[in-house]
């Protein structure tokens, strides 16, 4: 059996660099169970260089090879890539654009759909265009007095708001504001992370998540899971990944009616298909006390750390992660081979 050379890329240099390394550990452990794959792991450093696990500097060439800088190692041909990077340049689509250019197949969403989902402004426009209910919001393109006035009016109308950096991970540059004296500082904090900021109405609701994935040619949505935060808090970056986090998770949310569950799964698949996503996504919802369902956001490369929800929901719902991953890669390579043969 010919081994498939698989390049696992992690890191990225953004605010979620360290989390990406943990997710890459999960991929490595999974791939170790699949003898048909020959895996090389590289870390993308903050300065843009690639480095192997044993410290060798390298590059990905347009000949689909890993080129080592030491002058002693032969180039390593690449058959497939897993771009395990949370945030820039993975979830932003930048890395995928290069892989598309050199026709190197990869795991996950393509460049365009990654960009649309990562930017909270364009994502909400897509949700509305697809007739999927989402949280009330407004957009700010620069930090000036007009923006501050709009934010103050939103706080007055809604009572409580979230200020979010538009082009960051789900919890990076995100702040809950109830007090007008905090407003200007939090706006400045968010603009530090992104050129665009979104202001959303604070929704008192349950936080539900759905793992959506492709398996054996079908798009599947799991039963919703739930994030349960301490009273009057939200799921911050630290709450997600700190070992002392007070947040708890339920792989299957309790007490949901069949109608609510079906509606949430319907919206999750509608968003996945409508935004042309591939392979996997975590789709997050709010459910209010009045049973109003609101799409919050989509994560096109969800965390795969020991405490992450996506792998738990997927494995609880159906295939093992190793079976799922193998099915995606082998199916994609088969299609890619046919395309290249017909060129």
List keywords for this structure.
26% strand; globular; 343 residues; 34% helix; seven-stranded mixed sheet; alpha+beta
Task: Give structural notes.
With 343 residues, this protein is an alpha+beta fold. Helix content is 34%, strand content 26%. It has a 7-stranded mixed sheet, with helices on both faces. Strands 12, 13, 14, 15, 16 and 17 form a 6-stranded antiparallel sheet that branches. Strands 8-11-9-10 form a 4-stranded antiparallel sheet, with helices on one face.
Structural class: alpha+beta
Number of strand elements: 17
* Overall residue-averaged pLDDT value: 92
Principal-axis shape equals: globular
Strand content: 25-35%
Task: Give the termini distance in whole angstroms.
Answer: 26 Å
Helix content: 25-40%
| Main sheet summary | 7 strands, mixed
CA gyration radius, whole angstroms: 21 Å
Helices and strands in order, then pairings?
Blueprint: E1 4-11, H1 17-31, E2 37-44, E3 50-52, E4 57-60, E5 65-68, E6 76-77, E7 80-84, H2 94-101, H3 111-118, H4 120-129, E8 137-140, H5 145-158, E9 161-165, E10 174-177, H6 183-193, E11 197-201, E12 205-215, E13 218-221, E14 225-228, H7 237-241, E15 248-250, H8 258-274, E16 280-288, E17 293-299, H9 309-317, H10 321-341
Parallel strand pairs: 1-2, 1-7
Antiparallel strand pairs: 2-3, 3-4, 4-5, 5-6, 8-11, 9-10, 9-11, 12-13, 12-14, 12-16, 14-15, 16-17
Helix pairs in contact: 3-4
